[in-house]
Design brief:
155 residues; 60% helix; DUF6456; 0% strand; DUF6456 domain-containing protein; 7 helices
Length: 155
């Protein structure tokens, strides 16, 4: 009980001093979008890039596949759109190609920022420090990188 009171007092004192609470579980891109620091187009490009990153990095299945059974083709089969469907391995390769294309479209320096912040979920301040950049420069560089990714994804 005494520790709870001490924690409460520290929190109250920090709030009076102007400290802000941060949700560490929130993605950096979502945090920037929620506060109006990046546009909807940039956010969508970042989400597509992260989706491709996650799909490209998936490991092979080690459990039962619950996909629907293959559809018969020919005179009695449905055909059509089922032929265009990709297998899980083909989807992974396609996602990897899109990821590599988006990072190549961003360029050498900007692809590092996209990989660190968007794909890996590293914070802006941490990325700035690790790359040796001045404080508050990461957001500008990230916006440029997201614009290039949005152009690649044709948003």
């Amino acid at each position: 009980m005494l520790e709870d009171a001490a924690d409460h007092a520290r929190t109250r004192d920090a709030a009076r001093a102007g400290a802000r609470q941060v949700n560490r579980a929130e993605e950096p891109l979502a945090w920037l979008h929620a506060r109006g620091k990046i546009s909807d187009r940039q956010f969508e490009a970042g989400e597509r890039l992260r989706g491709d990153f996650m799909a490209a990095g998936q490991s092979p299945r080690v459990t039962m596949a619950w996909d629907p059974a293959p559809v018969a083709r020919g005179k009695r089969g449905a055909g059509g759109w089922q032929e265009a469907a990709l297998s899980p391995g083909e989807r992974q390769v396609a996602a990897k190609e899109r990821l590599e294309g988006a990072l190549a479209a961003a360029g050498a320096g900007l692809s590092d920022v996209l990989t660190r912040i968007v794909c890996m979920g590293e914070g802006l301040e941490t990325a700035e420090r690790s790359m040796g950049w001045p404080a508050r420069s990461g957001k500008v560089v990230l916006c440029l990188a997201l614009d290039r990714a949005a152009a690649f994804y044709r948003l």
